[in-house]
């Protein structure tokens, strides 16, 4: 029998919530089950069928999933288990923590428990809810007990689907997400090294190794992300998006180091940071041979290509060497006063 675990993070469901931790949490849950569906922001379904002999009862499996997700972000979560997606999600919606302030709540829902629940929990539109009230249908058990033909005559196909849910039937299969493919390298430093620049050689080596792996698979990255884990300070991070998939490890390393040094200056550290480890990830992988010819590319993307070229020039010749003319006073009487030079930054 299929068993699904639904997880709902109320904080991620808020209209103005920061949804950035959601994808990393789903990535972490891949260690529990390879079949995970992102139903919506802050709502996930995990197929836990057959995990009982390995991990124990379903409450323990849910606790393990909660622990893995909280390793990314310590958010409150509601967990529900059922034999289909409707029962699992409804169980999560009804789950309540056992004590105030508990980080997680758990509930298991069976089909025979639906009869005692109100029809307001069904995903019906306002007009259908109003018609349910006119017919005196307040509980799922009442709707489930009606003949299907009568429900179809009064409420149409939508009513028949709601009646199937009230009976605990949901034929919709779980649609596993496809995890964004990436390659990752971690380089520890023992003892820690002093300063961002001291990691340049290790970064170049890591870039070269990952690019060699991708070259053998006929892939190239569209983005590089670098993080330096510091001994007594928050990590330094930099991200570099490419205008087109590239396999140039030396330039990737140079530009990432430049961005990290700029981030360190902006943080105004009093002394050189001590770097404990380096984390490099290359993602947005694609086949470079399938790239569209430049003559047919949208002009909007050309600025990214120009920025990439200018950033490479700045890395080679140093900062403060590239300038552009900007028309600032077009009506000035003297020609040399009509424009000014502006530094081209990263």
SSE pattern, N- to C-terminal: EHHEEHHEHEHHHEHEEHEHEE
User: What is the CATH architecture term of the largest domain?
Assistant: 2-Layer Sandwich
CATH superfamily of the largest domain: DNA polymerase, Y-family, little finger domain
CA-atom Rg in angstroms = 28 Å
Major sheet summary line = 5 strands, mixed
- How many domains make up the 3D coordinates? 3
Q: Give the low-pLDDT segments.
A: 291-301
* Beginning-to-end CA distance, first to last residue: 56 Å
The overall average pLDDT, rounded, is 86
Report strand order across the widest sheet. 2-3-1-4-5
Describe this structure in words.
It is elongated, with a radius of gyration of 28 Å. It has three domains: 4-109, Reverse transcriptase/Diguanylate cyclase domain (Alpha-Beta Plaits, 2-Layer Sandwich), CATH 3.30.70; 114-166, DNA polymerase, domain 1, CATH 1.10.150.20; 182-291, 2-Layer Sandwich (Dna Ligase, domain 1), CATH 3.30.1490. It is of the alpha+beta class. The strands form three sheets. Strands 2-3-1-4-5 form a five-stranded mixed sheet. Strands 6-9-7-8 form a four-stranded antiparallel sheet, with helices on one face. Strands 10-11 form a two-stranded antiparallel ribbon. The model is unreliable at 291-301 (pLDDT under 50). It has helices at residues 10-13, 22-29, 52-55, 58-70, 85-94, 126-134, 140-145, 148-166, 200-216, 249-267, 302-317; strands spanning 4-8, 36-40, 43-47, 77-82, 104-108, 182-194, 223-230, 236-241, 274-283, 323-327, 339-343. Helix 5 (85-94) links the parallel strand 4 and strand 5 (104-108). The chain contains eleven helices and eleven strands.
């Amino acid at each position: 029998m299929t068993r699904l675990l639904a997880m709902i993070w109320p904080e991620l469901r808020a209209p103005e919530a920061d949804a950035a931790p959601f994808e990393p949490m789903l990535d972490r849950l891949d260690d529990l089950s390879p079949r995970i569906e992102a139903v919506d922001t802050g709502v996930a379904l995990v197929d836990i069928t057959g995990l009982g002999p390995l991990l124990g009862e379903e409450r323990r499996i849910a606790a393990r999933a909660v622990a893995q997700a909280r390793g990314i972000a310590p958010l409150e979560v509601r967990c529900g288990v059922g034999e289909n997606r409707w029962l699992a999600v409804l169980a999560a919606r009804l789950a309540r923590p056992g004590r105030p302030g508990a980080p997680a709540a758990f509930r298991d829902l069976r089909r025979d428990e639906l009869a005692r629940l109100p029809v307001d929990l069904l995903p019906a539109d306002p007009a259908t809810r109003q018609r349910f009230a006119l017919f005196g249908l307040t509980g799922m058990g009442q709707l489930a007990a009606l003949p299907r033909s009568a429900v179809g005559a009064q409420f149409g196909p939508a009513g028949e689907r709601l009646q199937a849910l009230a009976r605990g039937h949901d034929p919709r299969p779980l649609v596993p997400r496809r995890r964004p493919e990436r390659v990752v390298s971690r380089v520890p430093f023992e003892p820690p090294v002093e300063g961002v620049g001291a990691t340049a050689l290790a970064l170049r080596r890591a870039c070269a190794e990952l690019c060699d792996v991708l070259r053998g698979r006929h892939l190239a990255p569209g983005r590089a992300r670098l993080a330096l884990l510091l001994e007594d300070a928050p990590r330094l991070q930099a991200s570099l998006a490419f205008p087109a998939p590239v396999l140039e490890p030396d330039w990737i390393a140079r530009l990432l180091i430049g961005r990290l040094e700029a981030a360190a200056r902006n943080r105004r550290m009093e002394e050189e940071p001590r770097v404990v480890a380096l984390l490099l990830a290359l993602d947005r992988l694609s086949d470079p041979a399938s790239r569209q010819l430049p003559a047919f590319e949208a002009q909007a993307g050309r600025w990214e290509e120009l920025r990439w070229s200018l950033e490479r020039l700045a890395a080679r010749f140093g900062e403060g060497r590239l300038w552009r003319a900007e028309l600032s006073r077009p009506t000035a009487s003297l020609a040399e006063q009509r424009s000014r030079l502006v530094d081209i930054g990263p």
